[in-house]
Design a protein that fits this description.
CATH topology of the largest domain: Elongation Factor Tu (Ef-tu), domain 3
CATH architecture of the largest domain: Beta Barrel
Number of helices: 6
Radius of gyration: 21 Å
């Protein structure tokens, strides 16, 4: 949950955005401390390739690979994915290896990493090319270093903006040939998979606003509003959000706390068809408007604030967000939601599907609720 009241961007990334410009040395240049760090990790991909739910504990102390005198970065990573970049050249800053994988830090990257504090959008897929070699990037996660220790994923012990710590994008390669520190490499993201996740993430935001609109008449008290001035059910009730290719699955808690805030649960299950129809009607109008979408950034580094901005017919909405997105709703043919309500568990699940012309041609399908890729 962000301090601005929106829930799509992990709180620490928003909370410590300003500290990236307040007193940290070397912000405008590449600086480093010359210490070979210890290493602790807890990756989003314990086995295989692609993103999986965080789980297995990979905490361990690893050795630095090759030039042990190479300094660790003291600046946060430069990230290129907010503007849609999928390919760039970069300099290797550090390489750390274990028995079964290699961890590569570069001065800049087009790869979107998974954030363990709010892991809604998974890591990009792609490859890292160096010399005559190319290795698949099997995971991409956020790490942090104080120059003496290097932590990855949810093993990171500090929040962003902690003095003396740098937050970095960690590219995870399988065991095998790896680049050397100081090498120039080419980072290439799988563009089609990125587009699928971007469409799903934009659909997720737009669907949350449509859900707020369709539930607005169920509030009996005044609560905080979304960017369109409607009661922000999404922000007040969200438990988890998972972005999947061309879609999303959002889970909401309908419990005593929400009732005390003034949300009327009576007859919710029976009303779901009407609520769903109302939300889908709103979505159809917004998609038909071809509203523009952009990611606005306060700076180029990993911990700088990024906001999803969408110019909907009712007004421009801004939501803090660290993910990737399409550039316009004209890039999709339809956004639809489905709702299920488990009254005994007090759980409402919204499944969002996004139809794109190329996805329809390829026969892409949304996974059922409860599954992940």
């Amino acid at each position: 949950m962000s301090l601005s009241g929106e829930r799509r961007f992990p709180e620490p990334a928003v909370r410590f955005c300003s500290s990236a410009h307040s007193g940290r040395r070397g912000r405008g240049r590449q600086c480093a401390v010359r210490v070979a760090p210890s290493f602790v990790s807890n990756l989003s991909t314990p086995v295989g390739t692609g993103w999986q739910e965080p789980g297995a504990d990979f905490s361990r102390r690893l050795r630095r690979h090759q030039n042990d005198g190479m300094p660790m970065p003291v600046d946060d990573s430069l990230v290129r994915y907010p503007d849609g970049t999928t390919r760039c050249r970069a300099a290797v800053l550090a390489v750390t290896v274990s028995d079964d994988r290699t961890f590569v830090l570069t001065d800049q990257t087009p790869f979107h990493p998974i954030d363990p504090r709010w892991p809604d959008q998974g890591a990009d897929r792609g490859a890292l090319a160096f010399g005559d070699n190319s290795a698949p990037v099997i995971d991409c996660v956020i790490g942090a270093t104080d120059g003496e220790q290097f932590f990855v994923g949810d093993a990171v012990p500090v929040r962003r903006g902690e003095p003396g710590w740098s937050f970095v994008v960690v590219h995870v390669l399988p065991a095998g040939p790896s680049p050397r520190e100081g090498d120039s490499v080419e980072l290439a993201v799988d563009g089609e998979y990125r587009l699928q996740l971007s469409a799903g993430h934009t659909g997720c935001h737009v669907a949350s606003l449509a859900l707020n609109a369709s539930l607005a008449d169920r509030w009996r008290k005044t609560v905080q509003s979304d960017g369109l001035g409607r009661p922000n059910f999404d922000q007040l009730a969200i438990v988890s959000s998972t972005i999947i290719p061309d879609g999303a699955i959002d889970t909401y808690r309908i419990g005593k706390s929400l009732r005390k805030k003034g949300f009327d649960v009576d007859g919710l299950g029976l009303a779901l068809p009407d609520i769903t129809a109302a939300a889908n009607a709103v979505l159809a109008g917004w998609v038909g408007s071809a509203a523009t979408v952009e990611v606005q950034v306060s700076g180029p580094r990993l911990t700088d604030l990024r906001e999803w901005v969408c110019a909907l017919p009712e007004g421009t909405v801004r939501i803090p967000c660290g993910g990737t997105h399409v550039h316009s709703l004209s890039e999709v043919e339809a956004i639809r939601i489905g709702l299920t309500f488990n009254e005994a568990a007090g759980e409402l699940v919204m499944t969002t599907s996004v139809d794109r012309p190329d996805a329809l041609a390829a026969g892409a399908r949304l996974l059922p609720a409860g599954q992940s890729r």
